[in-house]
Amino acid sequence: MLRLNNLEIKYLGVILVLRGISLEVDKGKIVALLGANGAGKSTTLKAVSGLLKTEQGEVTDGNIEFEGKRIDKLPPEEIVKRGIIQVLEGHRILEHLTVEENLKVGAYSSGFGSRLNRQLDMVYDYFPRLKDLHNQTSGYLSGGEQQMLVLGRALMARPKLVMLDEASLGLAPVLVKEIFEIVRRINAEEGTAFLLVEQNAVAALSLAEHGYVMENGRIVLDGPAAKLRGNEDVREFYMGLSEIGGRKSYHEVKHYKRRKRWLA
Of 42, 54, 95, 106, which residue has the fewest beta carbons closer than 10 angstroms? Predict the structure, then answer.
């Protein structure tokens, strides 16, 4: 459904951030994009959603396709209408509005007709806590409740693909587990595909079917999530620590290419 083909991205025309990224998200699947801070994960999502221009970034090589059609030249509002929603990092809510008003904003692209109440009912079914708080000013919600709200707002647009940027950031493990279980349920019941950008590799790979590991603007490893969880390089250099107590870079691993072929 979504395909990035040898994507290269620069900021200000000179700062090369992504270096030939290629990845795919199939219809109705959950895919994880893993990497440390500065790896280029959020830039990848902004390239898909059309938000690069707001940060003086541009696609300088390669292309992005959604359902077989090129979208990297389209404005963000057109990309949303085609069924792609990005949930930005940091719980971006409209703090002065109520919970329900925030949710209704999410339905703007699909209209405010007879489907609005059905969409609200669907979101409240997945997030009962939001129903209890529907008249509460959203700025007073907890971090976990705000994360539920931004995800619920995304669902109001009836997306085909949701891109979640660091959904676990700043949340307690019990809340991360709860939110990811809701994502799993949405995927199973609505058929919504998800592209998860995460530093929490354990949580992401337990949810996703396929994963990509990103470092310094490149994909350095990819494969089925179950195999990535068991891969020695991922366990030592991404999910854990080396024997001497320091986290290593994939560029220090001379044999990861052999393991990448094994994952294919």
Answer: 54
Render pLDDT for 206-237 as a digit per residue (tens, 0 to 9).
999 999 999 899 999 999 999 998 887 777 76
The model carries a pTM of 0.86
> Measured between alpha carbons, how far is residue 208 from residues 34, 52, 214 in Å?
11, 26, 16
Q: Which of 94, 96, 69 is nearest to 82 (CA)?
A: 69
| 181 burial level (CB within 10 Å; 0-12, 13-18, 19+) | exposed
Place of tokens 């069924």: 83
Q: Which CATH number fits domain 2-263: 3.30.70.20, 3.90.1300.10, 3.40.50.300, 3.90.370.10?
A: 3.40.50.300
CA angle (199, 202, 204) in 5-degree steps? 65
Q: Is the dihedral of CA 241, 242, 243, 244 positive or negative?
A: negative
Does residue 24 surpass a pLDDT of 50?
Answer: yes
- Cα dihedral value 215, 67, 111, 159, nearest 10: -50
Cite the DSSP H helix spans in 156-234: 173-190, 201-207, 225-230, 232-234
Of 178, 188, 212, 200, residue with least CA distance to 25: 212
Which among 11, 39, 36, 41 has a CA at the least distance from the CA of 23? 41
